[in-house]
Amino acid sequence: MCGVFGVVLPPGGEQSAAALASLGLFALQHRGQESAGVAVSDGEQLMLYKDLGMIASVLDERRLPSLRGGLAIAHCRYSTTGSTIWENAQPTFRLGPRRALAIGHNGNLINTRDLLAQLSGGRGRLPASTDTELLTALLADEPAADTVDALVRVLPRVRGAYSLVVLDEKRVIGVRDPFGFRPLVLGRLAAPDSAAALAGPGLWGDDPGDDATSGWVLASETTGLDIVGAEFVRDVEPGEIVILEAGRAPVSVRFAEAKPALCVFELIYFARPDSYMEGRNLYEVRRRMGEELAGEHPAETDLVMPVPDTGAPAAAGYAEISGIPFREGLIRNRYTGRTFIQPSQTMRHRGVTMKLNPLREVVRGKRLTVVDDSIVRGTTTKQIVALLRRAGAEEVHVRISAPPIYHPCFYGIDTQVETELIAATHSIEEIRGFIGADTLGYLSIRGVLAALDLPYDRFCFACFDGNYPDPVPYDAASRKFVLEEAEPLSIR
Ligand code: SF4
Asked: What does the DSSP 8-state code read for residue 160?
């Protein structure tokens, strides 16, 4: 996934772009927890700070003051190409013959090997092993005088998923691939002394400010705009480049025809429920998925229970339609982030109990409908069912508010190997047996579309139906480490 954020401060503003970008990134932490970083420009030169770890531990108050300037981009990483090592943290930075560039990338390229063949000097010139590093090198090398011209020349050769925030000395630039697999939104930041700014975050009312006094923000999700008090303007369109400068209206350049295929999993599970995509609030979308699920797979039980946190909206919808009481029966420990805790073998053995604890008084003697948003490998769901049975549940009926995942994703989600997907190799009845549930039901693609109330051809559904909008050109299995000739350098 990854979270990206970009900001151009309003003219005359005294805020720190690095601080604002870090704040914006906090609203995107769920999109990647492996590393974080921020790059700034003061109009003359770029500076960068990045490290492995969660945003709060990397971008703390001691480091931000030295990152001065009115332009910034920020990134939090979830790896799909390249190991979790410092070198692969983003933003990337490269000083080329024509320009200095920093880039934050959400997505995953699918023709990395072909692009590598186009890089003069080859793999040896890359200090890291990500597709983003390669893209940055290609852009920095491009002889075009202007960064936007370089983007227009290079991007048509690039395939796969990329929502980018690009920083050069003078501008922040947003880019979305022609399919728009990953989201990217544009927001407006009010001048500090304007009525809009004084009204407070998200309360712009009738005064959205004007282009001459505004700053601009790019974010993976609208939650990134909300947290910095920016007003939503619009999505960056698939195949579009948006150039941002303080006190000027954004300039749009189209580099490819739009063939929209937004990842439907963003709406089902990845993005925050308080985000908006395609004009839809995602909590509402997920609640309606639960309603559809109740219609498709009813169960006679005493309670409807979510797997926290992401199963909660769908469980609420399921409970409303079925008339079965909604009750929380699993409590999530929010402080077991994988960056902070490297479990020992004994701890790892404890599996899901490190993250979830059952409320025995709620669960004991009850027939439960347990609602979750996906089953990937099946091992977590199996442990949750066992946990609930140990806590005294009489029956456990599992309901999933998404279709079975039959196919790997090559566009930015780390499910690139088919054999790791339980639905690719087992029947629904076999999966039910494996997870130890009394019954199992998945929402259909038709049910997802009914909840979205949008047409199929606006989305990518490839992991459910194998219909890849941008076909993958070569073997999938080695993709994640395609730029690491030997074994992965280190995996956390
Ligand atoms: S394959 Fe699945 S996870 Fe990947 S972009 Fe398409 S819908 Fe999203």
From this structure: B
Structural domains of the chain, count: 2
Each residue's pLDDT tens digit, 393-420: 999 999 999 999 999 999 988 776 788 8
| Shared domain check, 178 and 33 | yes
Instruction: Look up the domain containing 446 and give its range.
Output: 283-453
CATH of the domain at 326: 3.40.50.2020
Ligand 1: which of 2, 179, 411 to mutate, judged by most atoms within 8 Å of the beta carbon? 411
Please indicate whether residue 413, judged by its CB atom, sits closer than 6 Å to ligand 1: yes
Per-residue three-class SS string for 61-121: CCCHHHCCCCEEEEEEECCCCCCCCHHHCCCEEEECCCCEEEEEEECCECCHHHHHHHCCC
181 lines ligand 1 (CB under 6 A): yes
**Verdict on whether the full-model pTM lies above 0.85:** yes
> Residue 193 is encoded by which pair of tokens?
């002394």
Q: How far apart are CA 257 and CA 238, in angstroms?
A: 8
Calpha distance 250→271 (Å, rounded): 26
Give me the mean pLDDT over the 383-394 stretch: 97
pLDDT of amino acid 343: 45
Calpha distance 313→290 (Å, rounded): 7
463 in catalytic set: no
